UniProtKB/TrEMBL annotation:
Protein known as: YceI family protein
PANTHER family: PROTEIN YCEI
One Pfam family hit: YceI
Species per Swiss-Prot/TrEMBL record: Chryseobacterium endophyticum
Domain Lipid/polyisoprenoid-binding YceI-like residue range list: 4-167
Amino acid sequence: MATKWNLDPAHSEITFKVKHMMISSIKGNFTNFTAEIETEDDTFANAKTTATIQTDSISTNNTDRDNHLKSAEFFNAEANPTITFESSALNNEVTGNLTLNGVTKPVVLDVDFGGINVDPWGNTKAGFSFEGKINRTDFGLNWNAALEAGGVLVSDEVKIAGELQFVKQA
């Protein structure tokens, strides 16, 4: 019998980092997302994972930059309100389909299973950390500007990471 695990959003985060002007990185996160795992056992080996991120919940702690990222030049949040990820196996890495900006591509993320524990209120929880890289232009996020000294304003490579905690459903 399959067991369902739902995301504990209060103890979870999804972040990203991208090089700016080839000299430093800008970090950001998404503040509104959901995820669930369905698995046959507590090893999570054949787990089915689904996640949905609200595109307009992007935050880099800079309103002008956030509005630019939500615009048609980047995520086009109005036309593409969600980013989704679906996979059918979970172990030291997870391969799944990422849909971003209306484009679906396979991605591979490194995963670290933190284990299972019971919180003070009797809830069984499982923790995972993940990280990986995507090429934003693979998803049609092509906006950029050339720099006078060479290079570009925004790197094509985006590092993504997360700390996710799930609650086992009865």
